[in-house]
Every structure is written in structure tokens, then in C-alpha cells.
Amino acid sequence: MSTPIIPDPGLLIISILSSRWDECWPGLLDTLEERFGKADHVSEVFAFDQTDYYDQELGTPITRRLVSFATLRPLDELADIKLFTNELEQSQANEGQRMFNLDPGFITVQRLVLATGKNYSHRIYLKDGIWADLTLMWQKKQWVEFPWTFPDYAGDDMKSRLTKMRQSYKNMLNNPQT
Predict the structure, then answer these.
(1) How far, in whole angstroms, is CA 62 from its chain's centroid?
(2) Exposed, middle or buried, 35 (CB in 10 Å: 0-12/13-18/19+)?
(3) Which Pfam families does the UniProt record give (predicted)?
């Protein structure tokens, strides 16, 4: 028999895609911080050019920011976080056109898991129409992608950014605020 153990909390990250930063930023950050606490890291805007999947809805050119939060969160909150970000996207949409796309996930010592509303063979159902996507695995001191990993997460630039966030997460685990 295995004994259930509650895992360490995870580092909440949110990937934000937009072509309209001047309309949504920094108000979007304020809203996210109201819900999830102070941001630990906010990246500069960087290229999102691995796909044109979002071009029609979000406009072009689309760029990305990564945000992580200083308060570590229980991993079983992922579905609720995704439901919140979906509502936030819709609340700011105009005639069905989103101003931004929000992809929340958790970094842990072992992995990056993103939340999605889309089922696929490798995704695990959480609740309320939300699935967990095992996007990257940490192995031998580096991120390792899977055949299903989106190209933008498989690239060296993204992996480098995520490695820095993972190190920050490890520091938080080792030096909890009292």
C-alpha cells in the first residue's frame, strides 16, 4: 500500500500572449496580483513566432510575457486557476476576440505542468473541463520535452527562462518566508 503524501506547493506561472499590450498592461498584472499575490518575476515582452494559431483572434504581432508569483500554491488549485484565467480572458474580450491568452501552470522541482481545456491522449483530467498537460520534465539538470510539447516551450530561450524560474522556486522552498 502506498501512503498518500501531500506534495510541495508549486510555483504558479502564467504565460501571457497578446498583440495589444498597450491596452491591457499593466492593468492585467494588477488583476493577476489581486488574485494570486505579488508577482515574483515579470519578464520583458519576447517573441512568440513558433505558430500562427492565435493570429486571427489576438492580432499580430503576438508577443509573450511570463509571470510567476511569490506565494507558492497547492498543486490541486490548477483547475480553479485555469477557470479564473478563462473568465478573465472572456471579461476583456470584444465581440469574441480575446485581448490576451493566459496559460497558467506550475513549475515544481520535477516538471512543468500547464492547464488546458482541451483533452488529448497524454493529458490528465482534473475537474470542471480542465486538463493537466505534462509539458516538460526536469532530468539531468535540464528541461526535457516530449513529442507533444508545444514548440514554443521546447525552444532553448523558453527553457532558459523556465530554468531561472525553477531556481527561484527552489530558493523559495529552501528559504520559506516566516
Answers:
(1) 17
(2) exposed
(3) DUF4416 (PF14385)
| Phi, psi of 50, deg, nearest 5 | -85, -15
How far apart, in whole angstroms, are the C-alpha atoms of residue 46 and residue 63? 6
Within-domain flag for 176 = no
For residue 79, what is the enclosing H or E element? helix 78-91
pLDDT of residue 95: 85
DSSP 102: E
- Asked if residue 80 belongs to a domain, the reply is yes
Count how many domains the chain has.
1
Q: And the C-alpha cell for 22?
A: 498597450
SS3 content of the chain, % helix, strand, coil (to 5): 35, 30, 35
pLDDT of 134 above 60: yes
- Whether residue 90 lies inside any domain: the answer is yes
